[in-house]
Structures are given as C-alpha cells and as structure tokens.
Amino acid sequence: MEVKDLQKQKLAYKDVKFNLDTYWLDPISDYDEPVDHPLAIICPGGAFKFLTDREAQPIAFKFNAAGMHALVLDYQLIDDNHAVYPLALQELATTLNWLKTQTDHHIDLEKIVLMGFSAGSHVVANFNSIMLDPEQRSQIFAEDLTVEPSANILSYPVIDMTIGWPKDEDWAMKIAPDIYYWQAQEHLTKHGKPTFIWQTVTDNTVPVMNSILYAQKMDMLGIPYEMHLFGSGDHGLSLGTYVTQAPGNAANLNAYDVKWWELCLNWLKLRQILPRL
C-alpha cells in the first residue's frame, strides 16, 4: 500500500480560499476490486497563529500506515481580514462535502474521523458541538452537510477559552469576537459523535480541565468517549518520539505518553472504523 498523491488541494468557502494537504492511499493493483478506506482530517495546533508541521505530515503518515487516507486542513487562522470563527467551521464543513465528489480515491464515507491538536482540537470540538446539530449549523452554514464524521480525536485540546488558554482575553476576541464560540462543551448536543481524548495532567499551556469538561458533557449526554490522562509531559507532544522532536528539545520526547497512538488505534478498532485484525 503506497501513498498516491502528496499535493495541495485548493478549496473555497464563498470567497475565502483554503488549502488541504492530501495523503491518498493507492489502490492495491492486484485486488479484483478497490478497497474503500477510512479517512482522517487533521487540524494541527499553533495557537491560531500558525499550523505546526509537527502535527501535520507525521500524523498523516501514521494514519496512512494504519490503512487510512489523510488530509491536513489549513483552517482559518487569525489575520487582518478574518477571525477564526465561524470561518474555520465553514471550511471544515466544505471539506466534508467535497469528499463526496472524490470517488476516484475510494473513500469510505461512513468512516470519517476528525482529529485536532491543541487549538485545532478547539475547531474539531466546536464542529462536533455546533455543526452536527442541525439547528445550530443552519445559523452559519446554509448548505446541507452531506458527509458527517463518525468520530473525533482530541489531542491536548483547547475546549473552553475561559479557563486558562488563551491568557489574554484580547487574543480570545481575535479568535472569536462572538463569545458563543469560546466554550465548545456548552453547545454539545446528542448529535455529537464518539470522541477519543488524551492529554497530560502536567500540561503547562492548556489546563487539563479542558479535556475533563468535554468528557463530562459527553458523559451527561450519553455519547461514547474514551479519555486518557497521562501523569507527565508538556503541552504539544505530538507523537512524543524523535519523529516529531524539534532539534534539541527534550520536552518533545516522552516515553510514557507515546502509547497514546496505540490506544487511539485500538479505539478506532473498537468503533469499527479500523478492522480489528
């Protein structure tokens, strides 16, 4: 199984253009029929200032190795013309609808996973809370959502922007002038999808209570979830191995927390997104 195309796909929501990095799996030529593969859409972190490559291509390749297509979404960041919200949600919805047109890539549209890291997790959590509820979605996205995700993965997520990150309220206002978007857990409904969450309790950037609040709300609503809170490690670990270590940065390595990826794959098997064998 090989990765077919590594290229930027340009999409647009209304007059705003955005990019996807695409990591498609090649069909295996000696099969009688092509196999439809699950797909992950990855939203890297970066404080809504930039998108870190440490949570992009290395994660896409891990999904490819597990038998999944992968896309990295270049979602809206803070700039002189736009806030992050609601545009990032509209871009993600546009991406999901676009998948239905990509028949050449043999995507299993019933097995789409959204994955976020840090600030990117805020986009995913808000999508799960707001955009999967038809009433809330209709306020900001006029089209139907023709493809829905089946599950989410939140890595050291920002969930509630009032409990420690960002520390500057002015920055929060630049992310979302409408405070409706600040607290993802407050808008979660029964329409939300099963979610895997992991973080460290020693996270020195995003308080671990973010993960706990979202899991608590999912528990109240009866939405399946799995959460792993590790006892050590800084924010932004990504894979926690040398693959995603910035040169000389020992804080990017954590032998205890690297198990999150294996646990995540096990959960995807539990959700029948990946085969058990």
From TrEMBL:
Pfam families: BD-FAE. Gene3D superfamilies: alpha/beta hydrolase (3.40.50.1820). This is Putative lipase esterase (Putative). SUPFAM superfamilies: alpha/beta-Hydrolases. Residues 36-217 form the BD-FAE-like domain. The keyword Transit peptide does not apply. InterPro entries: AB_hydrolase_fold, BD-FAE-like_dom, GDXG_lipolytic_enzyme. One of its GO terms (molecular function) is hydrolase activity. Keywords: Hydrolase.
